[in-house]
Amino acid sequence: MASRRRRPPRVALLIETTRTYTRELLAGVRRYVAAHGPWSCFIELRALESGPPPWLKNWDGDGILTRTFTQEMADVITATGLPAVELRATFLKSALPFVGMDNRLIGQMVAEHFFDRGYRNFAAYSLHTERFFEERVQNFVTAVEMRSGSCSLLPEPISDRAADWEKGQARLMAWLSALPKPVGIFAANDQLGVRVLDACQRAGIPVPEEVAVVGAENEETLCAFANPPLTSVRFDGATVGFAAAELLARLMRGGARPKGETLFPPKGIVVRASSDEFVINDRLVAHAARMIRENAAGGLNVDDLCRTLNASRSTLDRRMKAAINRTPKEEILRVRFREVERLLRETDLTIEAIAEQTGFAYSHYLQAAFKSEYGRTPGEFRTKKAL
Known about the structure:
By secondary structure, the protein is an alpha/beta fold. It contains 15 helices and 12 strands. It has helices spanning 20-36, 71-80, 103-116, 131-146, 165-178, 190-203, 220-225, 237-252, 283-295, 302-309, 313-324, 328-346, 351-357, 363-374, 378-386; strands spanning 10-14, 40-43, 63-66, 84-86, 99-101, 122-125, 151-153, 183-187, 211-216, 231-234, 262-264, 268-270. It has a 6-stranded mixed β-sheet, with helices on both faces. The chain starts with 9 loop residues before the first strand and ends with a helix.
């Protein structure tokens, strides 16, 4: 007599789908299920603030993967008595095993990023509303202090409610204006990083010449929307999701819970224009670098730069080479190529349109210069990045 086919585990994925990191978590879960499943998964489009689904209280499933936002949701999940794994570290009362990113390494990585670029003034911005925000900031402060630096913190948290936006931005502008410059600022997540950049723009504070900003989570929509684009710590959501699914599978088989949290290092820092500079103490060079950043894509050339700065080409060449190890021409090309890379990654614009938007007179000039710099054509670069 043929054996009965075993029913696949029924798993609820209570994970918001609105963020880059959480979509990567789901991709990691999917990779585990593809290799070790099948699972019967409940999944829905969710926002972070979504409450527990009404059916969860009486559900007779087998396991839960959750990012828990409210105490109500934590209590409902606990009351089910089902094996569950938490993917969002919070201050909520919950005994679920946690799998996530290592906030200690995040803070260290950002501090090293700033130190390597010559920064010696530091600040951090957080809402102080979540455990992981506080851990990230405190570990950043610790890493700075271990290298004999000091870090300024916003004296009182600023509300993230929309109604308080203008009042909060005014306070942020006042704080930023008073900081010693140049300063490297760590924002506990990308949303806060965007707020810092907006406040800098309103206050007329040059970024990154006087204020460099790094966020966390690499939320791509926010990072690209910011002006200038926001540097951010890239999380490893796929690895976290795979490990969480692996742990849940063990718990559903009756296995022992881990003794502590399961933490993974970030994948690195995605450097964008908000921190893609070194500290420049030469005021002439700092002014030149800012002009290049703002005008290179509009066709700025070295003669234009020298004329505006009232400096000879030889003087500007010598001082820029001494300060940033690049000539004005090399710096103009670097800034143009950075924008070319972004457009190749993020748009379907033709090479002709990209050349026009990045200061190259003709597309074949861009093609030749890009291949000389990168060893491949823009089209080949775009194809590889899309894989």
